[in-house]
Design goal:
The structure is a homodimer of 449-residue chains. The first copy, chain A, has 449 residues and is α/β, with parallel strands linked by helices. Chain A has three domains: 9-124, Probable tRNA modification gtpase trme, domain 1 (Gyrase A, domain 2); 131-209 and 382-430, Four Helix Bundle (Hemerythrin (Met), subunit A); 221-372, Rossmann fold (3-Layer(aba) Sandwich). Helices cover 45% and strands 17% of the residues of chain A. The first copy, chain A, contains 15 helices and twelve strands. Chain A has helices spanning 31-36, 91-103, 113-120, 126-136, 141-152, 154-178, 189-208, 210-218, 232-242, 283-298, 313-322, 361-373, 385-407, 411-429, 435-442; strands spanning 9-12, 19-27, 50-58, 61-71, 82-89, 107-108, 220-226, 260-264, 267-273, 301-307, 328-334, 351-352. Chain A has a six-stranded mixed beta sheet with strand order 3-4-5-2-1-6. A six-stranded mixed beta sheet of chain A has the order 8-9-7-10-11-12, sandwiched between helices. Chain A is flat. The interface between A and B is large, with 59 and 58 residues.
Amino acid sequence: MIQNRSDIIVAPATPTGVSALAVIRVSGAGSIELVSKCFSKDLNEAEAYTIHYGHILDGKQRIDEVLVSVFRNPQSYTGEDSIEISGHGSPYVSQRIVETLTKVGARMAEAGEFTLRAFLNGKLDLAQAEAVADMISANSEASLKLAMDQMRGGFSKDIASLRQELVDFAALIELENDFGEEDVEFANRDHLKELIDKLLLKIEKLRSSFAAGNVLKHGINTVIAGKPNAGKSTLLNALLKEERAIVSDIAGTTRDTIEEVLNIKGIQFRLIDTAGLRQSGDQIEQIGVGKAKEKMEQAELLIYLCDLSSTNPSILEAELDQLPKTKEQIIIGNKVDQTDFDPEAWPENMIAVSAKSGNLSPLIDKLESIAANYESSNETVVNNIRHADALAKSAEALHKVTQGIDQGVTNDFVALDIRQSLHQLGLITGEVTNDEVLGSIFGRFCIGK
Amino acid sequence: MIQNRSDIIVAPATPTGVSALAVIRVSGAGSIELVSKCFSKDLNEAEAYTIHYGHILDGKQRIDEVLVSVFRNPQSYTGEDSIEISGHGSPYVSQRIVETLTKVGARMAEAGEFTLRAFLNGKLDLAQAEAVADMISANSEASLKLAMDQMRGGFSKDIASLRQELVDFAALIELENDFGEEDVEFANRDHLKELIDKLLLKIEKLRSSFAAGNVLKHGINTVIAGKPNAGKSTLLNALLKEERAIVSDIAGTTRDTIEEVLNIKGIQFRLIDTAGLRQSGDQIEQIGVGKAKEKMEQAELLIYLCDLSSTNPSILEAELDQLPKTKEQIIIGNKVDQTDFDPEAWPENMIAVSAKSGNLSPLIDKLESIAANYESSNETVVNNIRHADALAKSAEALHKVTQGIDQGVTNDFVALDIRQSLHQLGLITGEVTNDEVLGSIFGRFCIGK
């Protein structure tokens, strides 16, 4: 990718489908002039942020009756002169409009090319651009808030301030290098070490927020397991009925093996129902059990179900010992209504319910408290693996700086490690970048964004 | 349907799907004030046709970073104060925006309700409103042009001028009625009959354009038939490769049993491949042959294929005699390369080709000439069955007027028939209407239109 960055690009910006409206975007220096060539009015004198009614014309043929929005460099999404054409929501008509624009000199935009230009023109940094993609794929309150915060630049500001502190020190160290043999020391080594400790603390805090960020963005991978007939599917159905979500499922979301999504307090619990766990002569069933165990190991939250009416505390104890150590576990004693239940006899943290009755309040309360742990603080959260990786590498380089100072290595090496750390931080916001990185980030965007 | 027409309505106007942009429409008196309640800027002083950058807020929570377009009564699609919100193309985010607006007092719009309001506010008449729906489902050059012409009001003007001429006469006749017994004659009966003949001629011309209008809108129902192994599928594939279409197929278009669409000179040939025609002991195959015959009878164009290398002119002659009389027929002699072909021996109108070679120029030429018959003249074309029906009823009433005059019936009856004719014409443009008609027309629109 990374085509010519100065020509005029065009693309549909709304999904294909018969609908009320379809929007087509055009951007690039000269785009207003270009659209004027196939619009019933001259837009060249049109003011920024104004809307114009008219017709798209292919020669003399009227293609569509449209509204045209005019944006002018630099007050536009891309930072360039731009046009948005809002026409009738017919895929055929949209295609004809795009075709008409390409006839007069626009070219089809590549995926993410509008946002790429916004980045290249300094309208947003790389972390903000990535947040735009996150915003588009947001499917819960938490992922929406996360994307919105990152898009507003809070994270970028944190990274920039880390960088700035290092840059100042790097300048001093490199100044010493310029003096060569003279053995001056502008950069106080103790101060440098203090600074680095402070930066490492901040970086570690950001890195450790990645697990939470990942949950906010993608939800909690939740596995429901237990012996056959413990009531797993009944529980799942009852949970879904209790759901307090706005959206339980959004068309087009990739769900892989995920079977249901439960939305509690804005956090998605991605529920995976598993085959009942038992030894079986049936080979096919054993494969199912094997897969269940694998899923349990990958789970962030494991909901383990037992049937109180057909087991006893010591058997359950043995079963629990066999479970993989996931981050969170909830033990459910089901069918409490079918047995004389003595809470004293069972594990203290077990939640006793009757899934069949549909009253799952204690379980919902527990899930809500787990969701609350992730609740939006105003602190910056890392939710992007690329950023987490760069932070790790930046920290690694800083550790080397400290070691180097302690071991008395020459300035050159210290400066090199500082520069490496700066480089990694710069990758996050795109102050340092290359075509390959840009291609891989923007290539994942939608066409028209 | 036909809910309260004065409240503020909201609906997504673009298809659901992860995409660059999503547009949400709001309309109704007070809608600008209402959106201001959940927008980061006050829009109350905003000028019409201007765009405003900001955030949609649900209380203090930022839902999305958006552009808001402001339209003011009467210069808007609906003729009311209106807002279009262009946000990130996340179905979740769009839903949250709609939800936020309903919280502050908007209600979800019904299908077609924006256009219904446009009609009720006199922004367009009923025929034009129907053209909006046609525009959205346009899937060929011809259907696009047809919808565009009708949306611009050419057809409505024709109907209005027919009506006007009758209205003047109706007024004179009713004036006579007012004079009761006095036996005055303001409306010259011979002139009236002349006028009615003229109107009937115009109405008949419009009615007879319906067949062509239907083809322009829906395409030509084309059946390919012939004995087994005549090369029907080879022909179909070769035709599709030759296709000069911009769009061969549009996702979401209902295709029923249609198998392929060939787009020639802007006209859609909706190609239906059929089971080879032969007597067979196989029951299932006989059902297929039965269906093929049924489809042939419904066809507007029948392409009948024979294999020149395995038949002779007299057998073909006999086969052709069996064919149903469709509007257009094309006889193809296939596999011309596998036989010593003597044009003199075969029907004069037969086109000899080798479908396998892929050279189908003579057939394409023929299809182009059929398409050209429908080519856009500047004359008005009726393409809507509701309009064709109203025209037929209007003509029927006019015939009664003439008969009545000839039979010397009283003025009352003549006036009644004239009024009936006017009523039917008025139904087309919506000068006469009722909730049921409106409900059935607008109920078929998209949500958000």
